[in-house]
């Protein structure tokens, strides 16, 4: 049996960066559902959190899991579930694009801590500001389908 230990830090936004997850209660419902649904599908969510317009999710990929399939299962099912719950008046959607980066074992605790502190972090800086700074700092081409 193969042994694989690959951590991926996923980040994705709501459609048009709308603050659909405006309250802590809504966010907790979404994060708990994502964790439970992922577990049912054999996806190990190590840590999840976010803010009103985005989600951070640290996942340990399994032997037959790809980045694309994993994020598709998480995002697609969670938006479907959220809309069926009728928790907000608008139609909830995630944006199509996402960010995924591998995380070395030595950085796992740092990433967990970063994800854990999203509320505090985004009281000082918006997701858009952080996003712009990150891509400028590292010279990556931005995805932006809002």
TrEMBL record:
Gene: tnpA
Residue ranges of every copy of the Transposase IS200-like domain listed in the record: 3-118
Species per Swiss-Prot/TrEMBL record: Flavobacterium cheongpyeongense
Protein's name according to its UniProt entry: IS200/IS605 family transposase
Record GO biological process: DNA transposition
GO molecular function: DNA binding; transposase activity
Highest taxon in the source lineage: Bacteria
SUPFAM superfamilies: Transposase IS200-like
InterPro entries found in the cross-reference section: Transposase_17, Transposase_17_sf
Pfam families: Y1_Tnp
